[in-house]
Each structure stands twice: as structure tokens, then as C-alpha cells.
């Protein structure tokens, strides 16, 4: 898994070099595409400032997920690694495809590996959970397939760059949007939150903010999952908050890192989530101030329940009576894994231009190139 991250950077570089030097290039659209009879097998692949960062995020998170479970999973390791490699490969292809139909195929092909992972390596009720995930998301994605089929019947193509240049009737666009939105709302259950509103604002700041918030969420939520499922659960075999209190007395290092990740989840300043929250709200206020006010309330509620959860776990009186022995603090493996996620969150929060500069060109191209 670590090799995929190291290979991802030269892979992207090679893609752009091949695009510019060895084939006819179409850079007028939002994607750098390969257009050549000699390299026709790459016609359906490309990368831009939007997918690039999610591509890299995948290669970062997957090795971390392996390392975080290296001690808790000791059986069927061949199946585990084979499934994870397949899952990562499919995820990377999802961020590279330039055809809507191929996107749907690879996007849905992620479900079988997830089904195997949850059903084979999950905890309580894992088989039931795997079936629910598979059926629920598959049914939701049928709306996406319906929109793709309708688009193909109207235009005769599913190539994204060609579709960007077509003029489709507005009422038809609304119909297609509803199908696509339902599918992604099921896949990423974050309806009525800032990143959706930022994207719907159809402004540069709103779209950039929603993407930045998605990237920041990838680091912060991964860290929180490791804190709860990879640290606390592995030590206590329970996820009930009522069983935890006073963790700061016995796990001070864990509580410090957990607190930083909780602040990132709240969108506190100096975190990359704050950059995404701010830009999303800015774009929403610019388009519809009343909706921006409503979206701003999510920051208050998010901070309230996150800090309340942290307070109940880290403090809330004396050490919990449910544990007969003290829980050990973070070991070196856990510390460096969580520190990596914290550093990404803070560094990108302090200097977000590393990401925003790349996003700006692609977002501007999408919004204004084909007006």
C-alpha cells in the first residue's frame, strides 16, 4: 500500500508528460486527456486539479488503514490484503475515468470488496451490516444509472469532455441532476451540510470549499475512526460513551491528539476543515444569504456535539469503573499514524494554497469555459 503512494506521484507526472509530448492533446476542457490512436487505451483516462487530490488522498489513507489494523486482524491476511489492493485500485480508477458509464461501473465495483471486508473482518453483526451497505447503496446508485442512460439517449455520448460542450435543455438538466444527486446523497450521507450547499452555490469559492472540506474530512474522520475503533475499542471492546470517562488521567497523549482531531471536525481555525467551511459558507452567502445563515448553524451544532462527546470521554469525573485495569496510552505505531493525519490537517490548514491553487484552475474552467 505504501508503494502505491510513492508510485502515484510519478504516475501522474508520466500521464502529463505523455499527454504533452507523445500524443495529440486536448487541454481545452477541464481534463488533461490523451487523444492518440497509438495510446487509444488511455482515451478514457485523465486527471485534473479536482481528481488529483482525491487520487493522492486515497494513496495516503489506504496504507494508514492497513497499519492501524495490523495488530487487531491476525487471520485471513491474504484475503484482507488482496481485497484492500483491489479496493484501492478501483478507487484510483474512479478518479481517473473520463466516461460517465465507466465511472458508474468502477464506482459500483467498489461494493463487492467492501462487502467482503465488512462481512469477513467486521465486528458485531458484520454480515447484516455488509448486506445493508451493499443493497442500500446499490439501489441508490440506480438513479445515477438512470441519469447516465438518459444522457446517452439524448446526446449519444457519455464522454465527460464532450458533454461539457453540449447545450442540454435546462429542464432535462434538472432531471439528470436529481438522479445524480440522489445517488451521491446515499453514498455520502451529508445532506443539508455546508459542503453540499457550497457545491450547489455554483460559485468558485463554494465549489473549492466543498472539495477542500471533503479532503479535510478524509484526514480528520480517518483519525477519529482510528481513535474510536482502533484505539479505544481495541483496548476495551466497547463503543458506548457511557463506559468512558476520565481517559485523560490514563491516556493523556491520546486525549491531546483526539482533541486536535475533534477541533478539526468542528472546523476550528488552523485546520484544513476550517478553510473548506469558510469557502463553502462564503460561496453560499454570495449566492443566497438566507441559506448561508442556515448553513452557518451547522458549525454551532457540530462544535456542540463534538466537544460534548470529547468532554464525556476525556474528563467527566473520575476514571470509569467499567475497566478493571488501566488502559494503556498510545504506542509508537498508533502515535505516528495519528500524528501523520494531524500534520496533514494542520499544514494544509495553515498553507491551503498547496491545494487551492490547483483547484482554482479546474473549477474556473468548469464554470466558465463552456458558458
From TrEMBL:
Listed EC numbers: 7.1.1.2
PANTHER family membership: NADH-UBIQUINONE OXIDOREDUCTASE CHAIN 4
Domain NADH:quinone oxidoreductase/Mrp antiporter transmembrane per the UniProt entry, residue ranges: 99-197, 198-301
GO CC annotation terms, alphabetical: mitochondrial membrane
Residues passing through the membrane, by range: 47-67, 79-98, 104-124, 131-148, 168-186, 250-270, 290-314, 335-354
Membrane topology, as annotated: Multi-pass membrane protein
Coiled-coil intervals: none
Predominant place of localization: mitochondrion
Places the protein is found: Mitochondrion membrane
Molecular function, one GO term: ubiquinone binding
Protein's UniProt name: NADH-ubiquinone oxidoreductase chain 4
InterPro entries, alphabetized: NADH_UbQ_OxRdtase, ND/Mrp_TM
Family of the protein in this entry: Belongs to the complex I subunit 4 family.
Swiss-Prot/TrEMBL keywords: Electron transport, Membrane, Mitochondrion, NAD, Respiratory chain, Transmembrane, Transmembrane helix, Transport, Ubiquinone
Origin superkingdom: Eukaryota
Gene that this sequence comes from: nad4
Function recorded in the entry: Core subunit of the mitochondrial membrane respiratory chain NADH dehydrogenase (Complex I) which catalyzes electron transfer from NADH through the respiratory chain, using ubiquinone as an electron acceptor. Essential for the catalytic activity and assembly of complex I.
BP terms from Gene Ontology: ATP synthesis coupled electron transport; electron transport coupled proton transport
Catalytic activity: a ubiquinone + NADH + 5 H(+)(in) = a ubiquinol + NAD(+) + 4 H(+)(out)
Amino acid at each position: 500500500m505504501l508503494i502505491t503512494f510513492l508510485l502515484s506521484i510519478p504516475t501522474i507526472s508520466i500521464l502529463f508528460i505523455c499527454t504533452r509530448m507523445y500524443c495529440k492533446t486536448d487541454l481545452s476542457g477541464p481534463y488533461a486527456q490523451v487523444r492518440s490512436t497509438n495510446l487509444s487505451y488511455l482515451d478514457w483516462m485523465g486527471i485534473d486539479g479536482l481528481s488529483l487530490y482525491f487520487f493522492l488522498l486515497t494513496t495516503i489513507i489506504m496504507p494508514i488503514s492497513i497499519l492501524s489494523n495490523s495488530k487487531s486482524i491476525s487471520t485471513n491476511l491474504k484475503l484482507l490484503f488482496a481485497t484492500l489492493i483491489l479496493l484501492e485500485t478501483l478507487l484510483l480508477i474512479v478518479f481517473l475515468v473520463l466516461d460517465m458509464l465507466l465511472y458508474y461501473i468502477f464506482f459500483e465495483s467498489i461494493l463487492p470488496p467492501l462487502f467482503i471486508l465488512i462481512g469477513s473482518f467486521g465486528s458485531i453483526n458484520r454480515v447484516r451490516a455488509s448486506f445493508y451497505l451493499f443493497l442500500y447503496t446499490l439501489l441508490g446508485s440506480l438513479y445515477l444509472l438512470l441519469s447516465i442512460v438518459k444522457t446517452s439517449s439524448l446526446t449519444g455520448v457519455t464522454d465527460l469532455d464532450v458533454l461539457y460542450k453540449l447545450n442540454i435543455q435546462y429542464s432535462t438538466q434538472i432531471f439528470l441532476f436529481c438522479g445524480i444527486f440522489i445517488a451521491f446523497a446515499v453514498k455520502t450521507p451529508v445532506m443539508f451540510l455546508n459542503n453540499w450547499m457550497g457545491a450547489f452555490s455554483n460559485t468558485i469559492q463554494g465549489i473549492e470549499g466543498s472539495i477542500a472540506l471533503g479532503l479535510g474530512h478524509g484526514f480528520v474522520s480517518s483519525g477519529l475512526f482510528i481513535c474510536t475503533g482502533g484505539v479505544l475499542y481495541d483496548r476495551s471492546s466497547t463503543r458506548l460513551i457511557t463506559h468512558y470517562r476520565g481517559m485523560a488521567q490514563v491516556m493523556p497523549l491520546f486525549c491531546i491528539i483526539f482533541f486536535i482531531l475533534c477541533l478539526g471536525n468542528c472546523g476550528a481555525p488552523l485546520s484544513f476543515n476550517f478553510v473548506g467551511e469558510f469557502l463553502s459558507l462564503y460561496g453560499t452567502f454570495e449566492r443566497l444569504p438566507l441559506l448561508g445563515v442556515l448553513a452557518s448553524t451547522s458549525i454551532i451544532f457540530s462544535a456542540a456535539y463534538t466537544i460534548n462527546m470529547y468532554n464525556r470521554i476525556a474528563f467527566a469525573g473520575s476514571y470509569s469503573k467499567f475497566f478493571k485495569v488501566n488502559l494503556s496510552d498510545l504506542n509508537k505505531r498508533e502515535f505516528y499514524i495519528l500524528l501523520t493525519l494531524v500534520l496533514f490537517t494542520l499544514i494544509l490548514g495553515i498553507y491551503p494554497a498547496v491545494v487551492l491553487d490547483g483547484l482554482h484552475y479546474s473549477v474556473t474552467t468548469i464554470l466558465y469555459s463552456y458558458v
